[in-house]
Amino acid sequence: MGDSLSAGYGMSASEGWVSLLQQRLQRDAPGWRVVNASISGETSAGGASRIAKAVVREQPDIVIIALGANDGLRGLPLADARRNLARMIGASQHVGARVLLVGMRMPPNLGADYTRGFEDNYRLLAKTFETALLPFLLEPIASDRANFQDDNLHPTAAVQPQLLDHVWPALQPLLR
């Protein structure tokens, strides 16, 4: 469950890190199936409204929740984002799924308190719900402008393997 960063915005569906994950799983951990329920523009509220039906329908063993970037860009109150993500984690765990919470960081334009609180939301939720946490999806590519499309928000197709390599160590223990 993600936003445009996981939906593969600006590239063919097969080039995004989630599609690359399916390919890696077929090679390294056969038997796993990936359902990419990511939607460009998705917020944590949208994910929270979709999660119950999705997990009941799919009965997943693992749910990767990679939402929040659009919340931060819109200045959503931190408590609202935290509540929405908590709903998603709770619904996933309710059907027996293990959760990998994938965090995001915000630029400082909304102030240091918001930026710090935004990042802290992910740590707090991971601790509260005892989920796996990858603190920042874009960590390996964030510092180089060349890794992003012209909008300076969405990674290029060329760096999608790096994103997968970054997610993989956090996901791999959940596959056991």
Keywords:
Rossmann fold; three-stranded parallel beta sheet; 176 residues; mainly alpha; globular; single chain; 7% strand; 7 helices
**Proportion of residues in helical segments:** 40-55%
Poorly predicted residue ranges: none
Largest sheet: 3 strands, parallel
Q: Which radius of gyration do the C-alpha atoms yield? A: 15 Å
Number of spatially distinct domains:
1
Form type: globular
Estimate the strand proportion. Answer: 5-15%
Number of helices: 7
CATH architecture: 3-Layer(aba) Sandwich
Strands across the major sheet, in which order?
Answer: 1-2-3
CATH level 3 topology: Rossmann fold
- Extended strand count: 3
| Text of the CATH class | Alpha Beta
The CATH homologous superfamily: SGNH hydrolase
Walkthrough of the structure:
This protein is mainly alpha-helical and 176 residues long. The protein has a single domain (4-175), classed as Rossmann fold (3-Layer(aba) Sandwich), CATH 3.40.50.1110. The chain has helices at residues 4-7, 17-28, 44-58, 69-73, 78-94, 112-129, 160-171; strands spanning 62-65, 98-102, 132-134. A 3-stranded parallel beta sheet has the order 1-2-3, sandwiched between helices. Helix 5 runs parallel beside helix 6 (112-129). The chain is globular. The two termini are 21 Å apart.
